[in-house]
Amino acid sequence: MGAAARSATARAEGAVAEKRELKAAIRRVEADSEVTIDQTPQQPVLEPPVPLLPPESGAQPSRAQSRFVLASFAAATLAAGLFAGAVAFRPPQSDLEAILGSDATAPVSTSTSSQSASPTSEDSAAPGTGEQLAIVGATGYDPEGDNLEYNDLAARVYDEDKASFWQSEGYQGPKFGGLKSGVGLIVDFGQDVTPKQITLTLPNPSDLELYLGTSPDRAGANRIGTVSGEQGDVTLDVTDGAAGRYLIVWFTDSPLVSDGRYRAMLAEVSATG
Known about the structure:
Blueprint: H1 3-33, H2 63-88, H3 95-100, E1 119-121, E2 137-141, E3 166-167, E4 183-193, E5 197-213, E6 222-237, E7 244-251, E8 265-266, E9 268-272
Antiparallel strand pairs: 1-6, 2-4, 3-8, 4-7, 5-6, 5-7, 5-9
């Protein structure tokens, strides 16, 4: 065999060997890539989240940490601004709502009507121009009877307690049962006074006359006012300049009261001068 033939044979054998090596390598790669039924895929291992602050107090935050902190601060600032704007543009409450609540209703005021005659309701009367006149005593007044008309209750008419009152004896019918023209009460100012206003508190509708004199008797006293069918606080203006020490409240009728008897009653009396 010549040299040329031997060279060709050697090259052919080398090529066959290379092909065999290549096929063997391919089979190894395929065998390594096959997954059997016993094999299960592994979960990927996640890196822990980046902490907001570095573990060492002196370390500088990373770029990711800085971005996260800035984003959180911006979101909090935006939320605070929206809340402040909502409060600023809330419709204001009225003074009444602020005090009572938004669903409260305004209280209804009431007043009594003033009378055209001399006696007037205390609520509607003009305030007195003078000072309160002191009362030093009071007693029952029954000149047509035994002159005893619950005298021990008389001091109640100037105790400034409208729940307490003086009352007359009980009678069987109006007009004191037809037995007398009236009964009353004498109020002592201790000295001569010139009252401008007299105020009475009457528990029941009452008919009466007011007298002012220098002695504890209607005889010679000046009649300074009348009341007809009035109840509650009644104020009378004294316009004639009358003066005296004793004010006589003279009841001319006895209304029916809760105990079934007919009585005159007076809770309070006061005067300004």
